Amino acid sequence: xxxxxxxEQARTNPFQETFERLRARRWDMSRTSAKERxxxxxxxxxxxxxxxxxxxQAIHADFRKPASEVETSELLMVLSELTHTxxxxxxxxxxxxxxxxxxxxxxxxxxxxxxKGVVLIxxxxxxxxxxxxxxxxxxxxxxxxxxxxxSEKTPHTAAFIDQLIxxxxxxxxxxxxxxxxxxxxxxxxxxxxxxFFTGGPKVGRKVMEAAARFLAGxxxxxxxxxxxxxxxxxxxxxxxxxIAFGKFLNGGQTCVAPDYVYVHxxxxxxxxxxxxxxxxxxxxxxxxxxxxxxxxxxxxDDGQFARVNGLLERSVASGVRVAVGGxxxxxxxxxxxxxxxxxxxETPIMEEEIFGPVLPVLRYEKxxxxxxxxxxxxxxxxxxxxxxxxRSVDRLLSETSAGGTCVNTTVxxxxxxxxxxxGIGESGVGNYHGEFGFRTFSHERAVLRQGPLSFxxxxxxxxxxxxxxxxxxxxxxxx
Length: 479
Known about the structure:
Strand order of the largest sheet: 10-13-14-9-8-15-16
Radius of gyration: 26 Å
Distance between the termini: 49 Å
Largest sheet: 7 strands, mixed
Number of helices: 17
Helix content: 40-55%
């Protein structure tokens, strides 16, 4: 394989110079104290708070996201992450003392957290601010230099982030690259020390391949068909309200949204009725009112609209019942909050992650059928269990796998900075938030210090007499 020189890379990759600028600063950043890193994070927090109105406008311009949803799902999430990190960073950075086994008497050991170096953060369009800045908080806290690549699908928010970063950080420490697939591909050709990507599995595989080329760290936050299960003991009012909130937030364009609901057959009709009542209360009693509400956002682009609408049309044609919604408007990229009943596993809407405001409801008789269906698919990013039967909850937790799980609520688990947020298998690799994010962007370095007393020399060559005896005694300690 031909080795490409640095000079050739600089000629062929438009971001080589940007990358080298970050790499030149990485050792300075690695030596920064907790106080210095906290100062950077506080400056970022102050700048965000000052520009909140501009953030509302930018995200609304991209896909009509309501200011209240920007407040809670974008701004609040980032500010709480910043505050939590600022409060705990000094503790996280301290070397962690670990124990000493008897055979190593005379030594002391610790784990030190050192930054990985230069990291790439590739963000998606669905939560364009939160999913760019929250990983950055962790990267800066860990002492890295970072390059951010916001999504081209949300250009107003990308421009907002670009200006924010320019005003807060030295470009040799944190910088932004805007653009589309071509720019992303060029970035993946550079030897970053860690690749952090949020998006779909198709691109996630390309990011993992890029990381593999450089034997670099990788974090993939992906998605999948996250199930909700409503059993015969569930509070239907609470289940309908919380599932509707989690599903229709952000126009259904949420990686942890309930993708479908399995409800016990004895509760199916009552649950669908509760969903209809909830949608009417949230967004309006009529289709006209729901289309006019300022509290419901749109599909981000024509491609996203066409994909979700195609799934909806094919599913309706297959015979499912539209219990709520079903109306669309291509001009404004509007798809109504929609609930589909009488859905079966083979219905088209079940073929892929929906990532839109369409909620399929399936019925079940036996819980083992639900378990079998979930296990037959790829491991989801989230799972939601609505039940007051602890045995059913424990069974679903122990017999399935998911990135995260909520019992009797949806989506809010990712707002707890004390919990790791991440997927498993097709839904992701690695995790972050709070201290988990700090560790994601850190290398845990093992350090052992030898004191004047050492038993190890009793086992040095030549392996005769006393050395053999000590070696045999050592192994017998563990027999």
